[in-house]
Structures
1.
Amino acid sequence: MPSPELERLVEIDQLKRGEPSRTEFEGLQSSGEARLVDEQNINLFLASRFDLAYNAAHALSLD
């Protein structure tokens, strides 16, 4: 159930309600999983590995 704050933003046209998309879900899941594989590459700089792991977590949290 959406929060009252989010509902208010929809009411005043500051936020649009989106429909779930199977394609979008699968794309985010695939992107997150690929980044998790890439972040295990020990030949990459630590900062790059962190960035990959962070972005994997972000993509997976959106599905």
2.
Amino acid sequence: MSKRDDFTNNLRLIGRWFAPGLGVKRWYFVILAGVTLLGVGLAMFLLGLYRTDSTNPLLLEILSYASLRFLPRVLRALIFGGLGVGLVVYGIWRLNNSLLRPYVRPGRPLVDELANYRRRERGPRIVAIGGGHGLANLLRGLKQYTRNLTAVVTVADDGGSSGRLRESFGILPPGDIRNCLAALSNDEQMLTQLFQYRFSGAGNLDGHSFGNLFITALAEITGSFEGAIAESGKVLSVSGRVLPSTLHNVKLVADMQLPNSPNQVRVEGESRIPQMAGKVQHVWLEPNDAPAYPPVIKAILNADMIVVGPGSLYTSLLPNLLVHDLLGAIQASRAVKVYVSNIATQKGETDLYSCYDHVRALEEHVGDRLFDVVLCNENYEGQLLDDSQWVRADEKTLADSRVRCADLADGNHPWRHDSKKLAETLIEILDEYTGPLD
């Protein structure tokens, strides 16, 4: 690149600092006003000096040349004014670069970082409800559009590392919350990888993730589980909030129809439901009157969009919606309510389910017409895992006027949603209902 091109790019970069919405111009003008007043004061001093020492011809000649009196007055004003503004802008730009250099990603101009931050700061208020890797994947895409994100996570998990910590320390399960915090992190590099690191080998740490242990330790230090989540969010610099659906120690219970038998069996515990052979008939929480976490209610009532899913139908989504006042807040909210159907069925929960079956199962538990939009995948290309099938939009699904189909599948892992495609489609839906919020 030539010096001329480099100079042109620098001028263009400086000009972008005056783009609308960055919140920068006002402070430039404040500084410029201060410098102008300082210049007026200096001019008054020089004028007084000029008048008192008018008998000194050498001083008069120096002042005359310094003030460019040999040029027309308008031209002198433009020269000094232009130099002043240019120096102020250049000085502030270089000062900002020096002060913020430790916090700016390499290769990303500071003005780009600021513009992106401001855009997401003004983004729509979105509440995402669910659990597991599906919710984390959704958040990873939505954080590119807004910082006003609230993830509402189930606390019914009783398996794996979360279940062991729940049993040993009496805290709510941190696993799904950890996944969402990592997904919302602004820097999913070393610190986030550390948060997601899972110990292996012999001993008591086997199977535990560092993030679960970290949240457990913070719960002991802060004295509350919600305090531990908030502090973890600060450590990871998350774009948004992660909240538990309830702070009560709830247990998921299911009635299941046994295969080739008219009998039903009752299964207690979220982790045991997918392992039991049979078809889920009905699920509920014990106790069934656990109140929702109050900040969750506030976020739902203030939301522009509420997204339920993707995630395990009976063990990730319904445990949130079965918290009665949380469900009541969703029903009362004026937000656009979207259900995101899974791409593939889940063994032990939704075998052979179509998109229609997912919606029917949800609304049988929480009431009809809860959602304004039902979002289904229409890309059935690729190889699924051996124990799953495509969740298809069949004739019954397409007969529902709320249904919208789109290509949402991840090309490398077709049983998962592509976070970018999913977030883009949801923002398009929100714009159709409310108009662009920018």
